[in-house]
Amino acid sequence: MVANNQLPGAWLQYVHPDDRSWVADKFEAELQGKAFFNDEYRFVGADGHTRWIWNRSFPIRDERGDIYRYVVIERDITEFKQATAALQQLMAGTAAVIGEAFFQQLVGHLASALDADCVYVAERNAEAMHTLAIWCEGELQPNMTIAATEMPCALALERGVHRCSDRVAQSFPCNPFLQRLGLEGYVGVTMTNGEGHVLGLLCVMSKRPLRDRIDYITILQIFANRAAAELERQRAELALQKSESRFRLLAENVKDLVCLHDLTGRFLYLSPSCQALLGFDPEELVGSNPYRQCHPEDRPLIRPQFQQAVEHPSSGPITYRARRKGGGYVWLESLVKVVYEEGVATYLQVSSRDITDQMRVQQQLEYDATHDGLTGLPNRSLLLERLNLAIKRVQRDDEVSFAVLLIDLDRFKVINDSLGHEAGDRLLKLITHRLGTAIRGIDLAARLGGDEFVLLLEDTEGLASAVRVAERILANFQTAFALGAEAVVVGASIGIVLGDRSYSDGMDILRDAEIAMYSAKQNHQLGYVVFNQAMHQQAFQRLTLENALRVALEQQELALRYQPIVDLATGRLVGFEALVRWLHPEKGMISPADFIPIAEDTGLVVPLGAWVLRTACQQLADWQRRFSDAAALKMSVNLSVQQLQEANLVTQVQQVLADTGLAGHCLALEITESMFMADIEAINGRLQQLNALDVQISIDDFGTGFSSLSYLHRLSVNNLKIDRSFVSNLFESQRNLNVARTIVNLSQHLGLTTIAEGIETPEQLQQLQALGCQLGQGYLFNAPVTQAVAESLLAELAVIQVAEA
User: Cα–Cα distance between 433 and 427 in angstroms, integer?
Assistant: First the structure.
């Protein structure tokens, strides 16, 4: 409008009395050209209502520069001022409130500020809406569940916002809530979280049409965001409460450290958890360099990692050790985030959690993976790692040398079985200690498993130094180990390998050390053997023979030979001992001395022994059907230790007798005296079961093993076989003769039959007859013969008996 200078100040009478004085002063200053009006004031209209006016004036000057007129722009900002006041009122009313009270305060203040009849905030639940607070007709109402389809809510949920200025009840005639209140206006906006998911609605309704000048939507959106944040907080709190009983211990111990750094890394802020985590008050560290708190070994590593994290935020966490006040370190896992202000990197935010327990578990797992659980020594895995490093050093430097000693204990199984596994474990720990005293700090002692140990001697002075260590260990083992009330002496067999450039893999060194160790075990003199290539060739030949033996069992290359057993008083044939032979298609006849030890070491002796037992029984049963006078003959079959330990041995023998039709008393099973050292009670129980089948038991090589005389009267045996070493040397020493005489006398007193092995001369036969030995076998009577030769002997026996008849 254009004001007329002839009526200055006429409009001041309509200015609100509280504003009239300062407005008049400003107007007067304007008339004098000192200042120009640009302000807000209240104006009372003809209807008595007060409104807010924004006023700005512009002077219009004549040619002389004098003001002769003003252009005044006025704008009614009442609605804006009301909306601002309402917003401030809402902000003040809900700023410090959380939980259920927040929603209740929110709907009450919105109703008051926006002059609304009904306000509610509702959480979306499946297809329905559940109010968190509802204000209606001047007071809070009980919460209720309403279907979104029955309200304009459906449109708000679909579009994000919906406004209906008037006649909302008529637009939804089926909704009883709208009809009962007679509502006209409606505004609803969705509550959305940071991920864009709709959590619910904030709605305002009025019985009067909505005023166009109030920006309902903007106001509601502001508080819908605030309500969404509070709802998410409540949900998180509820979820935490629900899981608190299960994760209370974890929650109480997880106290993350949050730090703010400047771009040089200095601490600007540390969360209070610093006190519990590191023992420092946060203020003690503000302004300091965080690298000073890191473990010295970690500092060179984490600097580039932090730089990497700053340049590439997705690079992952950083793990390091941080110093605690008063000493000690904790393991932290930190995530680094760059904080930007107006697009410029300003701060570094670092969130750290204590992973000390996790690192200890990880370190323990790594330790367990590389160490023996019983002795704490490095295991095969760590040993091979060190061996391969030693090999690389040798290949780089001719002056470097190392040696490997593989140690296998003698008689450990006997001690373990007789004194128990607990005593065996104690013995292994004591041996570990003694091995540790025999080597230097740079050397390594490892346990391969069972009773096998390995020493890696670094920077040795050649073979002589390795041999000295082996001799020192063997001498050390001569001192008894105290195992409770028992004291035991354990021998050892040691294989020695010198590392050189010919090796490229630690496994090859262990292989050669094992070959040398087995050679030492067979030698029994020095106790140690140094590996050479000839041993490798022998081991290769042994492996070749082992593979060939497996094939021989499958392809039936094995055959039996039968050595006659005769009555020494009459010379009459009383039976045979079945002896296995191997006729190789290329190598010819292979001695049992060559392949039986291999069969025992590999476990092939069990199927081999089963085959011998069945074949021998089948053969004797066949002879008994063909030769009438063979009915009283017996077949002797050797049993190995492994066969005797088989749980199904008795069942197997019973099945063979049933399948072949051979009577039990026609079978004699031969076992060695040393077998009783394992578990005499268990073995004797098995022998009793065999005796129950009428099967006879013979102790082979009696007098050569560990004496079991104190148990002999309790054992279920029938025969004692005098070893060939005593028979062949009967006349060389009185001692051998006395041993033979003692065995015969012992047998007679116990009611056992004595069988002499290896009789080769008439003089030996006469001496054994004089001692009272009943049966015998040996080359004097016949060597082990084929089936055909054995049958010719049986035929001659039949002819002689018929002639006598």
Answer: 10
